[in-house]
């Protein structure tokens, strides 16, 4: 009879396997049966073809809906998209609120009719476009881009980037992918300065950014085949006049600071 395999070696093998598994989600063939379908609605009310001499409201919405199987993954993605595709006017509505692009367009037009004065010839506009921008073996990356004008000094626009894990459909957050937080923050700050043509020794607050305190990671990121794409919206870290800040970090530069095995 052969001698039993040493327990110490078995323990070592288990530890190595666990540390590697930490970076690699299982590939599930079922996720290949999921696809994203666009649902488009465009509605106008009033005389939108005039040069601002009559009341007008215009809505154009392109929402994404996942279809296919497994059902649990589809539902998780659909629930997340529902939160981010809605216009902020309706973000606090309950289940009876707008459920489809057509519902949301009608609600926007009704709000315009309720709160505007026809004699002032006000013009409102809402456009939300969601799209599947990129895909890797591990992640679907969706962008939701919104432009809205409901009166005031200027319109507002913002971008929401969503990275969905193919393993279970959950939206990836920074906490899910960070391996070295300080290292990642240093890398992102360097890329931020490069995108904004800021010297390495110039205080960011003096340049107009991060007035509330220290440098911070953006709220929005997603995965491209060639790296991580990061996006700071207007007002997130700076006044509206400075606009958004966006940049790509090449995947080779991310080795050691994020869990790359979860992304590619």
Can you describe this structure?
- The structure is a single chain.
- The chain is α+β, with helices and mostly antiparallel strands and 264 residues long.
- The protein has 2 domains: 29-165, Heat Shock Protein 90 (2-Layer Sandwich), CATH 3.30.565; 174-262, Heat-shock cognate protein, ATPase (Actin, Chain A, domain 4, Alpha-Beta Complex).
- It has 5 helices and 8 strands.
- Strands 1-2-3-4-5 form a 5-stranded mixed β-sheet, with helices on one face. A 3-stranded antiparallel β-sheet has the order 6-7-8, with helices on one face.
- The protein is flat.
Poorly predicted residue ranges: 1-5, 7-21, 25-30
Percent of residues in β-strands: 25-35%
Distinct helical segment count: 5
Mean of residue pLDDT values: 87
Distance between the termini: 45 Å
Q: What is the name of the CATH superfamily of the largest domain?
A: Fervidobacterium nodosum Rt17-B1 like
Largest β sheet strand count, sense and barrel closure: 5 strands, mixed
Order of helices and strands: HEEHHEEEHHEEE
Reading off the top of the CATH hierarchy, the class of the largest domain is best stated as Alpha Beta
Shape: flat
Kindly report the oligomeric state of this protein: single chain
Supply Rg. 23 Å
CATH topology of the largest domain: Heat Shock Protein 90
Could you give the order of strands across the largest sheet?
Answer: 1-2-3-4-5
Overall SS class: alpha+beta
What is the strand and helix layout of this fold?
Blueprint: H1 7-21, E1 35-46, E2 56-67, H2 71-85, H3 101-115, E3 123-135, E4 139-149, E5 156-165, H4 174-177, H5 181-195, E6 220-224, E7 227-232, E8 245-250
Parallel strand pairs: 2-3
Antiparallel strand pairs: 1-2, 3-4, 4-5, 6-7, 7-8
